[in-house]
Design brief:
Blueprint: E1 4-11, H1 18-28, E2 31-39, H2 50-60, E3 67-72, H3 76-82, E4 87-92, H4 95-111, E5 116-121, H5 131-139, H6 150-160
Parallel strand pairs: 1-2, 1-4, 2-3, 4-5
The structure holds adenosine-5'-diphosphate (ADP).
């Protein structure tokens, strides 16, 4: 199978969750090289610092050989060009993501016609998953072990306290 050279998967990853990881694993089989880049967005308040977010992505992706992890505060298309990539990968969960992603991709295309955005659809079982929901659950002390890689779970526990399993009838 022919693979494409280089792609960038940008995001806030605040924190990385299993839906992101699924995208990363799938695209690393499609490109020779993938760079996951934690972007620092001044208009978004993050729970984790850029260094913490980067460390979590690194810990969760150690098993992927053709993957680089980076962080940036630059304009996305300028960054992509600077590292010699031509493709930006973005994930789509539902129609809800589409409006914003469409606008973002077209604006990027206008600024950098040589760079394309490739959309990859979420796997069905991660379609409900977002960093926001993970943080909300963790803030109530709920166990998020099934939703995030172990390194992220540890950091969430450090921020919010021990994750508790919900008690079910008879338990
Ligand atoms: P951003 O702040 O740039 O949207 P996120 O960390 O929230 O950063 O998301 C990074 C990328 O991962 C985005 O393209 C987003 O649509 C995608 N993504 C988020 N959650 C999922 C999921 N559950 N399945 C597939 N893609 C996802």
């Amino acid at each position: 199978m022919k693979t494409l050279p280089k792609a960038v998967y940008p995001g806030s990853f605040d924190p990385l969750h299993n839906g992101h990881l699924d995208v990363i694993e799938r695209i690393s089989g499609m490109f020779d090289e993938v760079t996951v880049t934690v972007f620092v967005n001044a208009s978004k308040t993050a729970l984790f610092s850029a260094d913490e977010r980067t460390a979590m992505v690194k810990a969760a992706t150690e098993h992927i050989p053709n993957l680089h992890v980076d962080q940036s505060q630059d304009l996305l298309v300028r960054y992509v060009r600077q590292i010699g990539a031509r493709v930006i990968v973005r994930g789509l969960r539902a129609v809800l993501d589409f409006d914003y992603e469409f606008q973002f991709a077209l604006m990027n295309k206008r600024m950098a016609p040589d760079i394309d955005t490739l959309f990859i659809l979420t796997s069905e079982h991660y379609s409900y998953l977002s960093s926001t929901i993970v943080k909300e659950l963790a803030s109530y002390g709920a166990d998020v072990a099934d939703l995030v890689p172990p390194a992220c779970q540890r950091r969430l526990i450090e921020k919010f306290g021990v994750g508790k399993r919900l008690e079910r009838d008879g338990e």
